[in-house]
Design a protein that fits this description.
It is built from 4 helices and 23 strands. The chain has about 280 residues and is mainly beta. The radius of gyration is 21 Å and the shape is globular.
Length: about 280
């Protein structure tokens, strides 16, 4: 009897040890490498149903999209219609394919609904990306974008606590458009008239953008497009960037001039955002 109990205990211990080994990778932060694309943008190697390609990483993209040529080699049932609008109010419609598994640099991401994209002549002189990787593929996860280190890290609860010790929390809202298939994040900037919500957009390379309706709050001329904007967000976190004032359907857009100067941690599960200046 005692022998049977000892064997059972040993078996339980061995199974528990095996389970820890199997799941060891999810108990640690998972690091995805960023590859430079053009002067200010980033690509990530993404695998979609066993086919790999280099996708533009765009935190302001809303939904993950497959390039036309890339999608031809993937079995996917595209159906229905997803409707979205870019920051200037331009409407875009297209079918979606659901429950698509993704891996980025070997790291498993959130299963998503994907659409299709035609980059056309958007990147003259360069080979167009194979697709667009957006924040919907990280839904429910905690991520840190560190452009100086060229990494995108999926944090654990433990690594998050260590990460944010020297970071500053700022207001954030998650936006889910496109019939709830899209996901993007807006950072709150408190002003004398109230809070302005600005899209965090790693796909916007050269300038920040402010809507004409909010230009005056930041001391900008609503009728002059190319200017420079400088304002404090909180603590030592500030924006100092070339800016274009334009007619938009959102308050503003903070692209690479702001993002490249900071480390940004986004909790896409609880809707929280932390920022620190990039050393």
């Amino acid at each position: 009897m005692k022998f049977t109990i000892i064997i059972a205990l040993l078996s339980t211990l061995l199974l528990s040890h095996a389970a820890v080994d199997v799941n060891a990778d999810v108990l640690r932060p998972q690091v995805i490498k960023l590859q430079r694309f053009r002067k200010a943008l980033w690509k990530i190697n993404v695998t979609v149903k066993e086919r790999s390609g280099d996708f533009l990483f765009d935190t302001g993209g809303g939904i993950t999209l497959l390039g036309g040529e890339f999608s031809k080699g993937i079995e996917c049932n595209f159906w229905g219609r997803t409707t979205g609008y870019n920051m200037f109010g331009k409407r875009s419609d297209g079918p979606h394919c659901d429950d698509v598994p993704l891996r980025a640099d070997g790291v498993g991401l959130t299963t998503v609904s994907v659409g299709k994209i035609n980059f056309g002549d958007q990147f003259p002189g360069d080979r167009a990306p194979d697709g667009l990787l957006s924040l919907d593929a990280f839904d429910g996860k905690i991520i840190t974008l560190d452009q100086a280190a060229a990494t995108l890290t999926i944090e654990t609860s433990k690594s998050l606590m260590k990460r944010i010790k020297k970071m500053t929390e700022v207001p954030m809202r998650i936006s889910r458009e496109c019939s709830a298939r899209c996901l993007s994040v807006f950072m709150g900037v408190r002003t004398s008239k109230g809070t302005v919500w600005m899209l965090l957009d790693s796909g916007a390379g050269g300038v920040s953008l402010i809507s004409k309706d909010h230009a005056g709050i930041f001391g900008l001329d609503a009728d002059k497009k190319e200017q420079r904007v400088s304002f404090k967000i909180i603590g030592d976190i500030s924006v100092d960037s070339p800016v274009v004032v334009t007619d938009m359907i959102m308050d503003g857009n903070l692209g690479q001039p702001f993002l490249c100067q900071h480390v940004i941690t986004i909790d896409l599960n609880r809707g929280r955002l932390w920022i620190s200046k990039n050393k």
